Hints:
Binding site for ATP: 202, 324, 354-357
Largest sheet: 6 strands, parallel
CATH class of the largest domain: Alpha Beta
CATH architecture of the largest domain: 3-Layer(aba) Sandwich
Mean pLDDT: 96
Distance between the termini: 13 Å
Low-confidence stretches: none
Bound molecules: adenosine-5'-triphosphate, 3-phosphoglyceric acid
Main location: cytoplasm
Protein name: Phosphoglycerate kinase
InterPro entries: Phosphoglycerate_kinase (IPR001576), Phosphoglycerate_kinase_CS (IPR015911), Phosphoglycerate_kinase_N (IPR015824), Phosphoglycerate_kinase_sf (IPR036043)
Helix content: 25-40%
Radius of gyration: 21 Å
Number of domains: 2
Catalytic activity: (2R)-3-phosphoglycerate + ATP = (2R)-3-phospho-glyceroyl phosphate + ADP
Number of strands: 17
Structural class: alpha/beta
Strand order of the largest sheet: 5-6-4-1-7-8
Amino acid sequence: xxxxxxxxxxxxxxxxxxxxxxxxxxxxxxxxxxxxxxxxxxxxxxxxxxxxxxxxxxxxxxxxxxxxxxxxxxxxxxxxxxxxxxxxxxxxxxxxxxxxxxxxxxxxxxxxxxxxxxxxxxxxxxxxxxxxxxxxxxxxxxxxxxxxxxxxxxxxxxxxxxxxxxxxxxxxxxxxxxxxxxxxxxxxxxxxxxxxxxxxxxxxxxxxxxxxxxxxxxxxxxxxxxxxxxxxxxxxxxxxxxxxxxxxxxxxxxxxxxxxxxxxxxxxxxxxxxxxxxxxxxxxxxxxxxxxxxxxxxxxxxxxxxxxxxxxxxxxxxxxxxxxxxxxxxxxxxxxxxxxxxxxxxxxxxxxxxxxxxxxxxxxxxxxxxxxxxxxxxxxxxxxxxxxxxxxxxxxxx
Length: 398
Ligand SMILES: Nc1ncnc2c1ncn2[C@@H]1O[C@H](COP(=O)(O)OP(=O)(O)OP(=O)(O)O)[C@@H](O)[C@H]1O
Ligand SMILES: O=C(O)[C@H](O)COP(=O)(O)O
């Protein structure tokens, strides 16, 4: 494996250390509902603070449209970071400019400060050199501890590595080591389970993923575009009609290469996206124009569970349904429990990743029995696909 500069090589005492975390955590009504990503980041924060660094946290949160939006403020997340690490965490209402500069200038060694959402500036996602320079002015050293955002070549995930001494944080290091170990020579048959809601970002990588696995199990919002491609009505379900040709290509590739794609055979549908909304089990040709598919149905759950019994390795990103809303968590919870039991019995290797996927597996009480839980969703899938991750590549020793 290529070597990375880690915190072991970093001289951080009395230095201003810009630490890129992935604080893109699940929230509900402004409260953090799953702290896994924060817990994984905690060792890096405390190690740096204990070594006398001024620890300046950078992260994106959600997908604001390139300008400030209170809905996507990191302020409540910064508070949750403080609770997890058991130390005060300051907050600055911007990640560049006078507000950030003054907050950083007031720091003492060992202090921790969180800057506002980097995506409140459209230049972040463009990796704009002038914006990189403005961020870089705030620090002497850059630590990237956001493996789950390493598939983005953004200013704070990649650009800073060109202008400041760059190091992998402890979580980045642990993710790379654990994923390499778990998946170097996976036991076959191997399946990728892909669900969730980020259809446009993930559907087009399923073609490459198919080369690496024996079976592709598709659920969640992701499945709806495939169902639409097969001519099934999907009503008001989350679906990307523009990606129907891509879905058809992936289905054709599977047939041509003898790979199996497992799609839902029934669905749980409702007219409103709300907990306890009146719902029913529907056949695939029986989804009404005002209905949404919010979970896989009981026959689909049975299919997936019996498939698990035949498999040796499962790589999972994306829940099977809108698991935050009872009872649309049933598919995810049932499959997660079956996967966890098989793992505990030594029959299956289970590696799962993703902000909401981890929250769903915690909700199911299954995460502890999985072989490895990554914080990364999209980055995990791209890593599995064999793609270079810009936020990782920038850390490699040349
Ligand atoms: N059928 C569905 N309709 C609408 N939303 C769905 C459906 N199935 C799953 N979801 C939603 O998908 C979301 C999770 O998808 P997402 O792709 O963001 O996964 P993730 O694990 O967070 O990965 P990443 O870390 O890449 O974001 C959940 O909030 C869940 O409610
Ligand atoms: O949750 C994730 O997968 C990361 O935080 C990346 O978020 P993004 O897909 O909005 O870039």
